[in-house]
Structure formats: C-alpha cells, structure tokens
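REQUEST
  id: r-88c1
  op: predict_structure
  target: Tat pathway signal sequence domain protein
  payload:
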Amino acid sequence: MNRREFLKKGGVAASLPLALPALNSGCASSSPAQATQARQSGHLSWLEGKEPAVKAGTTWGHPWPQGALRREQPLSLVNAAGDKVPLQSWPTAYWPDGSIKWTAHAVPAGISLGDQFQIKKERGPAPNLPVRVATSAESITVDTGVVTISVPTSGEHLISTLSRDGRTISKNARLVGLVQDQVEPDAVAQVFAFQSQTQTVSVEQEGPVRAVVKIEGVHQIDKGKQWLPFTLRLYLYSGAESVRISHSFVFDGDDQKDFIRGLGLRFDVVQRDELYDRHVRFVGENDGLWAESPQGITGLRRDPGKAVRDAQIAGRKTPPLSEWPSDVSSRLKWVPVWNDFTLSQLTANGFAIKKRTKAGHGWINADQGQRAAGTAYVGGASGGVLFGMRDFWQLHPVQIDIRNAGQEEAEATLWFWSPEAPPMDVRFYHDGLGQETYEQQLDALRITYEDYEPGFGTAYGVARTTDFVLCVMGATPSRTTSVNWAREINTPGQVMAAPEDILKTGVFGGLWSLPDRSSPKKKQIEDRLAWQVNYYRQQVDQRHWYGFWDYGDVMHTYDVDRHVWRYDIGGYAWDNSELSPDLWLWYSFLRSGDAATFRLAEAMTRHNRDVDIYHLGRFKGLGTRHNVQHWGCSAKQLRISTAAYRRFHYFLTGDDRTGDVLNEVIDAGEALTRVDPTRKLANREPVPGPERMQVGTDWGSVASNWLTAWERTGDDQYRQRLIGAMRTIGGNADGFFAGTYGFDPTTKKLFAPADGEAQVSHLSAVFGLVEINAELIQLLDVPEYKAAWLRYCRLYNASDKEKIAAVGKAFGTHLEAPHSRLTAYAAAQNKDSALAKRAWKEFRLPQEFALQWTGDHQAILDVKGPQVLNPVVEAPWLSTNDSSQWGLAAIQNLALIGNAL
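RESPONSE
  id: r-88c1
  status: 200
  body:
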C-alpha cells in the first residue's frame, strides 16, 4: 500500500488525530505495554530482573541529588539478605557545587546480591580476595585471588600467562589478522598476516575490587607496516576466574588495497589431560550445547562401560585406564584424534560446526544451527579456558577456531571478522556519478537525498569495539555452567536504580517523568510510546539490521512500494543518529526501566560512538550524516558526534570506551577549521571570527561536549567556556534567531554577528539542543541566555502575527509537533497555562509527527510472500525521524505540562 492509498483508506483521520487502537494480531509481539522489571524505590536491582546465575563481578553507574554526596564519602552495598558487600566506588560526574553527581561502582565476583539491594553511606568490608597489582618494567601482574595474569609492557602478546592454583592454564594471548591487496573475483590477491604490537601499558584501577589494565598498540604486518591502532582494556574483579576484555580498533588503511580478511583474538591452552579427558564445547542457541572430546569413546564397537562414558559426556575425569575393559583400552590408538574444530557464523541466521583430524585431511561437518552464542571451551578435566564474545552472531561474520586440541598446546582463535567470509570491503559504493561541482552535488541531493562529495565517503578513521571474556577454569565446566556463562557474556549483568530514584536526583535536565496512564489521553500517548520502541526492536530482527559495521543502528525512512526500508537510497538508509533516536531511546528507558529498551539504546550507542564518528584523520571529532554506508555522506558534522547522545550510557554503566569517545569530542569544534559544514551554501552572510558556528546543531553539540567534560572533571575551564558562549548568545539582540555565530577554535569563544534578518532552521533544536539547554539552564545562572532560549521556544510555533511583531519576519514552521516541546518548556518555565494548551494543540495536529494511528488495521500491515522475501510487519507511515522526535515531544510534554492535557 503506498502513501496515497494509505491516506485514502483512513490512515490519518483529521477528526481523530490521537486515536490509538490495539495492535492487530500480526504484530502481537510488539505489545503496547512494555514488560518492565519490578524495581523497588530506594533499591538497586538487576536490569533483566533476576540475579545472573554467573556472578562474574560487575560495574554500574548511580546518580545522586545535588549536595547529597560529598567527595570521599565512603559507600557500602547491602545485599538482599542484609549483609554488607565489598564495594569499590569512584566519581564520574560532579554538580556545580562540587558534590558528586554520578558514581560508578564495582562488586566482587562470586558474591550474591539478590534481586534487590542498596547503597549505604558508610564504610563497607574489604573483599576476602582483593585484586592485587604488581608492576615492573617488563610486565604488570594482576591477581584476583583465583586467577593471575601477566601483561607484558611490550611485544606481540597482550597477556603472556593466565594461571590458576599456581598452574599456567593459558598463555600468549594476542591479536591476529589477515589482509589482502585485491578483492575482485578475477584478481590474484596477496594475503599478509599481522599481529598486535603493544606500545604502552597503564594501570587505570588497581583494586581492591576491580583492576583495569589499559593496553594501547598497533598491528604489525610481517613486511613492516604498522596499522589499525587499538585500545584494549583488561578488567579483573576480586575473586573472579574470568578476565573481561574490551578491544577497540580504528581503521586507518587504504580502502582500495587493504581488504581485511580476518581479525581475531588468539591464545594457547596448555593440555595436560589424556586425549579422552579433553573437551571442546560450543554453546549454540536456546541453551543448546555441542560437546565432544578430541578422542571420543562413545559409540565404539566395544563399550568402555557406563561409568567411563558418563564421565566423558559430563566433562569429568574418566576412571583409570586400568578399570576399562581391556578390549577397549588396548585399542585406543586406533580411535581417531580430532585436532581441529571450527564454528563459523557468516550471517545472522546460520552457523556450522566442522572438525578434522589434522591439517592436510578433510573436514567433517558436525552440525548446524541458526544463532550461536559465541562461547566455547577448550581444555580438559584438569582445566582449560572457557571463552566468548559479546553480540557474536549480531556482529557477523564471526568464527571460533580450535586447533591442535590433541597436542600439548591447543590454539584458540575468536575471530571477530571470519577468515571464511568475503574480505571486508569499505570502499565507497558508487563512482560519484559525475558529481564534481557543488551545484551538481546539491542537484543530486534533490533526488536521492545523498550529500556526495569526492573523497568524503571514506571509512578512514572509523572504529569498532568488541568485548570478550576469558575464563580460566580449574576443570571442564558442566553443561549448565557453560550455558550460564554464555548468557553472562552475551548479556552482562547490569545493575540499575529504580526510575523514580533516578528522576528524583534531577539528572538529565528534568525533561522526563514516569509513565502515567491515569487518563484516556495519557494512556493513548503512553501506549504509542511503548509500541514505538517495541516496533523498532521487532524491525531490527525482521529486517536483519545486523553485521560488523551495522549492528546497533536503525534505518531512516521506509519504502512503502517495496515494503523495505530504503537501505540503498542515498540519505534514506542508515540513520546515524539523525534527529536524535539515541535521545528518544534513552529517555524512554529512564522513564520505564525496561531492559529491552536499555539493550536497544545501548547497542545504538555502542555502534554510533564508534562507527558513525571519526577517531583519526581529517574528519576526527566529526560524525557522518545518514547514508547507505555509515561513513558515506559528505556532511561531516558535530551534530552526529555530540556527547549528548553518549553520556547516558557512560553515566549509567561507567563504560570506559564510551568515556574515551566523550573525551575525544571535547574539542571537536576545532574540526570546523578543517571542514565547513555549510561550504556548499551560496550567499552566506559573513560572521565575525575565523569559523562559523550554527547556533542550533553546532552550538548544541559543542555545549554538550563542554558540559560533559565539566561534569566529569570539575575543571572550571569548561564552565568558563560555557558561560562565555551563553553570554554571547544571550547578549545578542537576535539570540537564537541570529542563526550563525563566529567561533574561534583556539580561544573557544563565540562572536555575535551583526544585526540582520532572523535565520531559523527547523533542524536547530532537534539534535539535542533542547535537552542540553535544559541542563545548562538548570546548572548555570546566565539569565540572558535563559531569556533568549525561552523567547525562541515561545516564538518558533507562534502565529505569523507574533513572529512579525517579535523578529520582523513570518518564518516558516516545520516539524511543528516536535517543536511543541519547546512551547511546553516555555510554558512550564513561565507557568503559562495558555501556552501549555497551545503546546498540546501543536502536538496533536495530524501532521507528519502526529499520532497517525487509527482503528483501521491497515495502518499496521502484515506483509507476506510473494510481496516480500520474508514476512514482515510494517507501519508504512512511520519513519525514524517521526519516531524520534514524536517520542521526545511526547515524553517531554508529559513531564512539563502533563496536567494541561
């Protein structure tokens, strides 16, 4: 059904702009009401509701009201049983008065917290097995009390040894890869191997509950080339048998000749057990487990006995060989030894397991499935390594190799780019189509919505992060333990405060409230908000938005004729944070506490902070506008790299990689000297200062970067930057209607332009400016800035008469419903009931962002073959711009002027 047919059939009813039906049966999996976990005010709980079966040690973030927690205040954790638990705490943000705004916390491994627990302002106990760190010129040693690792300060190995109970279980952990110089089918390619080379090692935390070792380096190709700089962190918790690894690399190759064939984490495992007491395990899906021995003794023509068979199947040491029937024990030399095993997951929907006896002999297909958990074990009854990768199948193509399981040392490789897949190809997807001049590029923009410019669609400088876990086991884990570890690796236990407790602290600007279905109209909005998040969760899976570079992002706009999102059309494909879906999802989580919403928002942040932002090169500090490829658009802008979209994840989780990216963009405004975002626009008014800064998208991004840096460090230079810029904007007669200010990247100062005609962009306020201004006004007392912002909020959706009277121009109004939240903000700040009513009227207009949902089932369609390749549910009237901005307007209007609805 195309848009015209949809409208004819009543898809948008002007008389019922707010009508919300139940979903049709075909969309039953996207229920209007999200399933929220039971969260008790005053308590912490696990994100998914129940305490994880594996207690591996965990880290989380916690907010505090201004003035409630002073620096150096000791904190402890009280578990569900009332016992004090060891807790390591550190500040991650400060309020303007110097009190702590956010803390991060870590608890030891192996300790039960229960489902509900509390932080107390008192000193807690020390851990029974504190993490200990010893440093020398050659290495850093970390001892959790269960496992000891040694980290060399140079060389190719990330970890030289992993030991347990005084025995080396594993050694020589390193990064490996393959690259080839040709990719076309008829080309003869040369393949080169490379491995990690450590440049610097530092200890970021040294216990007593959590230690963090940071390794920075590059990859070395045998012929001498160094490339793919990486940052890797090792996390070790008190009492833990595991090491968490977070690895990020930046692509800095030549996309015309550097085609990555494989990227992996490799380590060796010492084998001490008899061949039949060794074990290889792969966790599949739905708690499935593939478990075999390099030398199987089940199914033989002669029976070794039930006790022997049962022990091997369970992973226990078998009875002494002398107790076996002699007609079996004497013939073991004839039973093949399977040295090599591979699980490959080349797409999101299929994996295969194969094995062979040794190199030079054929592979035997063992089994297949759809979505492997990405967790495996190699070792024996006396110990080995259980290892896995987070988001394994989602980040395909991936692979697990186990080699030489029948030798004295086995070799395991967890490939986060499978060497069995086609080489990674990050070249731009078309030849430019003759777009040489700005005029040609702007004309092409009018048909494909793609902002092309030669040389700009490059992946040079984008990054990707992969998380791994290595568990140093004293014995082969049971089948249940293996599956439980796979769950923990894929969905790490995350602690969270109750939504009402986060709300009470006043963090994130007070632009959200708890769900409220107390009236029919509020219920309609709440149901639509919940449905919208669930719909996107469903779309991720139905549309297969997975893959190494893609997982975490969503598409921009729908194609109602093909029944697909416009994955191949210019600027309509991958969304790249356009119009703030990140903000919409994070605010949705804050108010609901819903685990599925958190995981959707987290995946988006983990993608966008790495792939959609440049970390090296000419475009460092900038992000890329929406495109068929994440790096494809020539619009490299601050509005995509803004800290406004990532700070939620950092403060709620304490994630160090997200923290690194927040640091990277502190001075991203300097990139304006290298790339002028408005370079293609003719007849621009001159501005004072060396560079141009648009008062909406640019300033909102720079302000969020400086605000986040000020919060995280307490460094007054960032406060002074903010106040200076705010006074410049507020002191200018045109304020936010000036459009563009001058900016000096060296001094970080803004310069007001000369008085001129009002310049208004419908995009100024939809990339985080609303949300960041709410926090700036909350935290900094700059009356003129507040007045300028409230004036803009009041006038944007005002009548033409009011606009002409105020700024001398009846500028057009676009995105009226999203901007209703500006009207609502002004109404709340000024306690203006008439303005509040106007805001709800703007929100309810049946425009692009209004509630286009009627009781007609044709508004939400089930589409099946032969119209589509796979059955899908579609809402043909919905786009990600709509969802994000409507969602933010709904959330903020309910919070600010809910009583006026």
